[in-house]
Amino acid sequence: MTNSSKLPSSSPEASTSAKRRGPGIRIFAALIAFVVVAGGLAIASVIHRRDENQSLQPLRLSGIPANVPTSLANLMALSPVPAKTVAGFSLTDQNGHAVTLNDLKGRAVVLEFMDTHCTDICPIVSQEFVDAYHDLGTAAAHVVFLAINVNQYHARVSDTAAFSREHGLDSIPSWHFLTGSVPALRTTWRNYGVDVVAPNPNADVIHSSLIFFIDPQGRLRYLGNPTDDHTSSGAAYLPTNQLTGWGQGIALVARSLVS
């Protein structure tokens, strides 16, 4: 930007003045640069130390059960929610038995929405459920593990039974994989805010993956957000330590609801 109060650069006086001021200006500019750089390094150092401290002390949401370590709560993306009664349903489990939410009151419910033909995250969550059941020990008698089908094209009882056997879920005494008519399933998806996209019988079902933790009074208390990784070929997996952590975390949250 040009300053009109200065002499034109073509005048001898301006040239002489510029030469006379040159060394002083350069020294002054160097001092400013040093101060700026030094100050910037100091600030960066403070920020770096602050970031290091924050990494050593991960944030913890208020309302997380006291028995769940912060690192585990972060792995699960665990969130407390305002306690509210969840919508009821009347569906059929993998054994052909009618199940309503009222039937389950008095026990904590760990609920996920699963695809009966899923080859991605649902089998991983299934393993986490099996691990959680074993981690619960004697408290398992007070916890129900539940899934609701999101595959409208494979909604028979035989479909939920086959999935349960394939992934060892039928080893959990309190396991129910629920299905029903397509209108009944869609109503349940909508009531729980679960998005489902299944354009045709051969397409992968894309759906919300959340774990709902419901207390013995039928109130939603916590949400978990399962995740998985994929190999270069696209196969879904989760490192063993994270699988183990998820199982322990599910068990701890469920135990907090019945203790």
Shape: globular
- The average pLDDT value, as a whole number, equals 84
CATH superfamily of the largest domain: Glutaredoxin
How many whole angstroms does the radius of gyration measure? Answer: 30 Å
Structural class by sheet pairing and helices: alpha+beta
Number of strands: 12
Distance between the termini: 72 Å
* Lateral strand order in the biggest sheet: 1-10-9-4-5-6
Tell me the name of the CATH class of the largest domain: Alpha Beta
What is the CATH-assigned architecture of the largest domain?
Answer: 3-Layer(aba) Sandwich
What is the CATH third-level topology name of the largest domain? Answer: Glutaredoxin
Would you mind describing this structure in some detail?
The chain has 259 residues and is an alpha+beta fold. It folds into two domains: 9-57; 70-258, Glutaredoxin (3-Layer(aba) Sandwich), CATH 3.40.30.10. 41% of the residues lie in helices and 19% in strands. The chain contains six helices and twelve strands. The chain has helices at 12-56, 70-75, 121-136, 157-166, 182-191, 240-258; strands at 79-85, 90-92, 98-100, 108-114, 143-149, 175-178, 196-197, 206-207, 211-214, 219-224, 229-230, 236-237. Strands 1-10-9-4-5-6 form a six-stranded mixed β-sheet, sandwiched between helices. The chain has a two-stranded antiparallel ribbon with strand order 2-3. β4 (108-114), α3 and β5 form a beta-alpha-beta unit. α3 (121-136) crosses α6 (240-258). Mean pLDDT is 84; it is low at 1-55.
